[in-house]
TrEMBL record:
Residues 11-129 form the Purine catabolism PurC-like domain. Coiled coil: none annotated. This is PucR family transcriptional regulator ligand-binding domain-containing protein. Pfam families: GGDEF_2 (PF17853), HTH_30 (PF13556), PucR (PF07905). Residues 486-544 form the PucR C-terminal helix-turn-helix domain. Gene3D superfamilies: PucR C-terminal helix-turn-helix domain (1.10.10.2840). Residues 336-434 form the CdaR GGDEF-like domain. It comes from Paenibacillus barcinonensis. InterPro entries: CdaR-like_regulators, CdaR_GGDEF, PucR_C-HTH_dom, PucR_C-HTH_sf, PucR_dom. Belongs to the CdaR family.
Amino acid sequence: MRNDRVFTVRDILERPVFGRARLAAGQEGLHRQVGWVHVLEITNVSPFVSPHDLILSTGLWLQSEDGREAYLMQLIHREAAGLCVEFGTSIDGIPEALIELANEYQFPLIVFEQPVRFVEITQDIHSLLINHQHQLLKSLETYSRELQQRTLQSTDMSAVLELLHLYASKPIVYISSMEAGSFVPGLAPEMEQAIYSWYSQEVEQLNLNDSATELWFHMDEEHALLCYPVVCFGQVFSAIGMVVHPATAVEYLKLLLDYTAKAAAALTLRSQFLEEKMVRSQNELIQDLMNGHIQQEEQARTRMGLRLLVKGQYWFAGGVLEIEHRMKGTGRERMEANHQDVLVLLRSLLKKNHLTSLLMLKNNQIYLCCAKEESRTSSRQQLMQMLEGITQHIKRFAGTNLKQVEIHAGFGKLRNQLTRLKDSLQEAYQVIEVARSVKPMKHVHFYDRMGIYQMLKAMPTSLLQTFAMDHLGVLMEHDRNHQLRLVETLHAYLSNFGSKRDAAAQLFVHRQTLYNRLEKLEELLGPDYMQQDKRLCLEMALLANAMIEGGEGQSS
């Protein structure tokens, strides 16, 4: 007995208890599924009928001409499997109008020419359905045990796919963002290509919870792909499915796919964690690059596993992810577990984006170096977009799944030389420091996008403090003594290009209050403070002062 089969009206008519029955109407509906059988003699049947119910009746409702068609339409609208009517007890025939209605809706109407024992029918059909359900559950239990054994023995997905194919008896499809796909057995090349295209367009970009969600891809009238995504950390890394006929009953197949998708997710995670045991050479390479022990570019690239290019060039990105635990009292084990979760997710996302990478975890910081070969369709800008997307995903993951953990990320300039990783990491630190100390720069992750802060971070703090005091000291002193917020007023006035209306709105003060403060600014700074050279100095001093104050707030 096939586990994925369902029993139809045609199957039921072949049972011995239906030996004296005949099909009066609805020949085209014999494919309807039968899920249960029960007796109903009342006229308002809708509340008591579920889809796939086969109804038994003596035809009491036919004795009155009123409501006959309404009764039948209730069964049709409730998606009942069919209606069986007994002659000789209450009625002796079916009106022609009901025959026509049943044929119109392809609704099986079965009659028994002589009285029958309904209890024998229900016992027979229920035993058939219950035994089949029992076999299905036993099959699923056996599949679950064998699936667990195979996943414990190996991380090889092919063994899992073969087992699924054995139980489903359907062509199996496995598509991954990180490795080559598999088809068991192989499909026609055009069908495989269509599945790859559908996966990249419709599945790979999905953001889901860790629970599996079924997806359908209808290829043609005879073939459809029932697919479950393999989800880890809310990200789709692969998908597993089977090719079925669009009209196939799939409840059992869905359960098989659900079990398999969860097993595939566990294998994916385990594979990623196993890779962490193989990172010693990566750590040594990053350490050598950071300490300047490798001078030859070719040597560095060879150790990273990059092929030597005859034409074109690589873009290298160096960065740092800092994991901040904001909850006091977080234990060391919990911290280490969080660090490993972030590291595994980062490695998986880099692999998913086909970026060759080096990773090193040290305390609460992850050092990163990734490489992308430039081509017609791949550029420096695209590499930055990939890294931005990866960073945003990790931040969302930490915000959703890790308790009071914040991720800070910075990337240095993208370069064509791997041996300059040290410079990129130093710049990455500067990005993180500025993002933490300057509120408008909070979401900046790249050194190239720091603007004027590149120059400010290059200056000694003592020089910046002196510069800020030289140009803003008189305002700071006045604010301490009179609380007029002149430094804040100057910043708002300059930020709004001298617009008094916009500055007043930003400060939430009355226009006249702003005029009074501007008069005081002119008195303290001189009437020429809005001239270009002096205005530039004031703007630089404001930026430097905000960065210094933000840094002091972070350190405290």
